[in-house]
Every structure is written in C-alpha cells, then in structure tokens.
Write a structure and sequence with these properties.
CATH class of one domain: Alpha Beta
Strand content: 15-25%
Oligomer: single chain
Distance between the termini: 90 Å
Shape: elongated
CATH topology of one domain: Alpha-Beta Plaits
Strand order of the largest sheet: 1-2-4-3
Radius of gyration: 35 Å
Helix content: 25-40%
Number of strands: 4
C-alpha cells in the first residue's frame, strides 16, 4: 500500500492509497477492545470492504476500501474520521456494558423467568402476599369506586356499593343547588 498520510492524521496510524481508494488504520489493542473494532467495522460494511488483521499482539490493522469508484483523498479522509469516531463510540459502549453487566444479566434472567409461564400453585402458596409492593406517593392510582363515590346529604362518604337499589328520582328531587356540585 502506498503510504501517503492524510491531513490531520498521524502517518504511523493512518496510511492511504488514493489510487486504490483504500486506507489502512492501525488501532492500539490496549486502548480499543476487539469487540469495539468489530462494531466499528460492521458499521462500514455497506460502503466499504473491510479487512481486519493483527500484525502484532499490540495492534489491529483495519483496511477500509471504498466500494465507490470515485474515492478521492477527501472521501478517504472523511471515511477515516468517521471510522475513528465510530471506534470511540463502540469502545464507550463496551465499557458501559462491562460496568452494567450485573444489571443486564438480572433483567435478562427476570425476562426469561417471566417467559416460563405463570407460577405453579406451590409457588403461589409459598409467596408472601403480606408485603405492600405497590407504592403510589402521588395518590394517582385509585379504584373507580373511590374516585366516583357519591357524598351523602350530611357530608359523610356514602358506601361505594349498596345491597338495595336506590329509589327512582322524581323531577322535583333532581334539581341541583348552586355550589353543591350536584348534577341537574
């Protein structure tokens, strides 16, 4: 590969071959994990031919060859810049995954346990239902009966459900007084 450097990139890290439309990027293995290199290379599969190599134990070599026939030096420079940005992004994602591995495994285990189906009768019998697991600090969740129960004449709260049906209202008893919130 012809080794002219691209403007803005160190010549020992990036080598370009504008005639072939290719660039070779040397990646430090101590900084970027192999999964990050794979992830960054995968992003470029639609527009480049990608060759990964490990010339030494300390570095990876990534050769990106443009699928477009008209890849000039500016296009190669943009391709290397985008690859470098994607490589950094993938390395950061790998770090986040490593730091949150316990959470990811717990959520996955709970999802798989839920997919196994409903619990058996023995599991339900052993479950402790006494613990109040529902927390509603804003008081948003309430039953329909609690929200729409009618108030009695003297201001006391009427029971939500009665055993006897209420008598039919007459036309004179249906009028509402202003300010009482009753419906006509």
């Amino acid at each position: 590969m012809n080794t002219p450097s691209l403007d803005g990139f160190p010549s020992d890290i990036v080598a370009a071959d504008p005639a072939q439309g290719a660039v070779k990027v040397t990646v430090d293995a101590s900084i970027y994990p192999l999964e990050a290199v794979y992830g960054a290379a995968y992003i470029f599969l639609d527009r480049c031919y990608v060759l990964l190599d490990r010339p030494s134990g300390a570095t990876y070599s990534v050769t990106l060859t443009s699928k477009a026939a008209d890849a000039d030096a500016d296009a190669l420079r943009n391709m290397v810049g985008e690859f470098a940005n994607e490589l950094l992004s993938q390395a950061w994602r790998q770090k986040i995954i490593e730091e949150n591995r316990a959470v990811i495994e717990t959520v996955t285990a709970q999802a798989l346990a839920g997919a196994m189906g409903p619990p058996s009768l023995d599991e339900l019998a052993a479950f402790d239902f006494s613990e109040d697991s529902f927390d509603d600090p804003l008081g948003i969740a309430m039953s329909w009966e609690d929200k729409y129960k009618k108030k009695a004449e003297d201001g006391a709260v009427a029971p939500a459900a009665t055993a006897e049906p209420a008598p039919a209202a007459t036309a004179s008893a249906v009028t509402a007084e202003p300010g009482t919130g009753g419906e006509p």
